Amino acid sequence: IGHAVIAVFAVCVAVAAMGLGWTERRVARATDPEPDEAAPPPGPMASDCSLVRHPALPWYVRYGLPLAVCVNIILFLSSNTNVGASVGLQVQVGHWAYKVPQGLFDFALGNTVSQMWQARVYPLSLLIAVFSGMWPYVKLVLMLFIWCAPPALFPDAW
C-alpha cells in the first residue's frame, strides 16, 4: 500500500510539472508575438528551492510525498521487527486434543539473517540483510533527501 501511495504522488508531481511547463510556454507564445528561440523558457522546476518548498507544486503534493515516505518507513520497521509467520503444533487423537501453547518456530527478518549466519550460509544471509533489511530504508531516506534538498546540491545532468 505504501508503494502505491508513493507511486500516486510521483505521478501527480510529474503531471503537475509537465502541465505547468506546457501552460507557461503556451502563455509566453500567446503574449509575445516574437518569442526568443535562442533561450528556451525555464521549466517549472528550474528554481533554487527544493521540491518541498516549490511554489509550482500544490501543498498536498509538497507535504504529502514526505508524509507517505515516512509512513512507508514506519510500515517497513513494523514488518521487519515483528514475526512474519509462526509454526505451531496441535495434536488431536479422537476427542483428545493438545496444542503447544507457544509456536515451535517464528519467522522474522532478524531470526532469518542470524540463523543463516549461524548455518554459515553467508552469501544468502548478507543478501537478505542488505536487500530486505537495509536497502528499503536507504532508498526511502534518499527519496526524502532528494525531495527536501535544494537543486544546487545536484549536477545539472540530473
TrEMBL record:
It comes from the Eukaryota. The chain crosses the membrane at residues 6-23, 124-147. Keywords: Membrane, Transmembrane, Transmembrane helix. PANTHER family: PARAQUAT-INDUCIBLE PROTEIN A (PTHR34730:SF1), UNNAMED PRODUCT (PTHR34730). This is Uncharacterized protein. It comes from Eutreptiella gymnastica.
